[in-house]
Amino acid sequence: MEAAPISSRSIISPTPSYSSTPLFSLRHESCRINLKLQSKHFSVHASSNSDSVVTLLDYGAGNVRSVRNAIRFLGYDTKDVQKPEDIVNANRLIFPGVGAFAPAMNVLNLSGMAEALCTYIESDRPFLGICLGLQLLFESSEENGPVKGLGLIPGVVGRFDSSNGLRVPHIGWNAVKVPKDSGILDDIGGNHVYFVHSYRAVPSEANKEWISSTCNYGEDFIASIKRGNVHAVQFHPEKSGYAGLSVLRRFLDSPNSYSAKKSTQGKASKLAKRVIACLDVRTNDKGDLVVTKGDQYDVREHTKENEVRNLGKPVELARQYYKDGADEVSFLNITGFRDFPLGDLPMLKVLRYTSENVFVPLTVGGGIRDFTDGNGRHYSSLEVASEYFRSGADKISIGSDAVYAAEAYLRTGVKTGNSSLEQISQVYGNQAVVVSIDPRRVYLMDPDDVEFKAIKVTKPGPLGEGYAWYQCTVNGGREGRPIGAYELAKAVEDLGAGEILLNCIDCDGQGLGFDIDLIKLISDAVTIPVIASSGAGTVEHFSEVFKKTSASAALAAGIFHRREVSIQSVKEHLLEEHIEVRMGGVVH
Ligand code: 1PR
Known about the structure:
By secondary structure, the protein is α/β, with parallel strands linked by helices. Helix content is 28%, strand content 23%.
């Protein structure tokens, strides 16, 4: 049954008036106090916004470029909220919450925007909250808390329970269960949409009137809410490909006129396995930024000229992979360890252009570390990451610097909070931080020959060795370090990594299949998602890695760049093998 609208007030009332009496007793105390202080300052008037302008609440905590790009792609302009009055005077408001709950509430409370939001929502004005923008509507959150929220919806936002082996954060594509006509979700049917979060609100008797869809990840949680003109989604429509754009389009096109169309009745699903296209990017000898690809990390042609292998242009290839149905696109700036990324403006441009019309998650890595330039100016890794996020990245990937941080942590047992990994995950959340591991297999006759975790290997080494350990490297495989992939994975999970990108130098570019021994070792050792990488040559290699290990995603480069295997054929094969994947590239 459709929940009653919050109020019967029309969306664009020529003289809207706002009651200073809360319509919901749940609103938390600070909201109520603010209300008294602020409501008299709101001069509410008919908005002069045209219908093609949507107001965006960006409180400066992270990347909302993707939301802006998606809105623009759908033919609308955005107007930024500068002051609380801009909220109450908006025609349509989108609130893409970014970052952690407590700092977000803090900014909203201090700026007076918490109160303005409550007023706006209680007046049943068109609202779309995204991710944290949904969670903040609840009474409180356990994230670094308890912390009070806006208190409009009954319930406490809590963390997914990983004690039973559930991988947290919940990252990836899930179909949502739409039990009733929800207006903006009408077109998504059984399609998968993209989630990335560690905290969730769960359905209860008290909030059931708000729920418009649920999703299952270890338990049922609230995927979206709807009440009158107020909507919020836990998933990211701006990152959910065509299905996500349809949600935004429905909200933007006609917020007040969703007629009961088809009831989608999407089924809840398991988390789909992701197929990721990876673009190793570097400047070639002519100074052009190109997509390259190595053989065991050697990216130079074995010709007289010895030039860098050139497999295409980064932006064009990323767009193609998005259309082909890639669930994510990763850019690895493979010489980032020696070139300072903020000096590497072409890479930032690649991100900006790509994010204009690629609506799946983008990860970028390479060179994320503290840096002092020739003029003595110090840049923190957080500044580098922030610039990547601002340019359109959803996740950043740290390679070499995470190895040094893990070594220090294992040596001292102390989390200093100073490593790039810790700093970035603290500010942007651990779901935004991937650690890329570049290990090399080292065979052993006896597992006790080394102080690191060694395993029995499926295929013995060249001298008949039955064991191996996986030595981590830095600087693109150029330097081996005294730490194993197993030790590194566990340490970086502790330090705040949200995901592991697990390469293998031995398998890279060989097309002989993923290193199943390594991927099983690491994916069993951690509770964060692991992306299997290096060695894909056939569609069967993808089903093998998903059947034999707990990897959450599989990444490939060479076979996609050389068009030997298409993303679509990988997914069709996985479906035939009863492995859940998101189908459907772009149809617009
Ligand atoms: O150390 O933080 O500056 O990050 C550097 C990043 O660049 C790391 O993520 C590292 O993995 C990557 N990188 C550095 N050198 C190379 C190289 O190839 N010379 N590429 C490199 C790593 C591995 C995968 C590759 C898969 C799949 N490339 O990303 O795409 O192996 O390939 P395949 O399907 O063709 O087998 P920092």
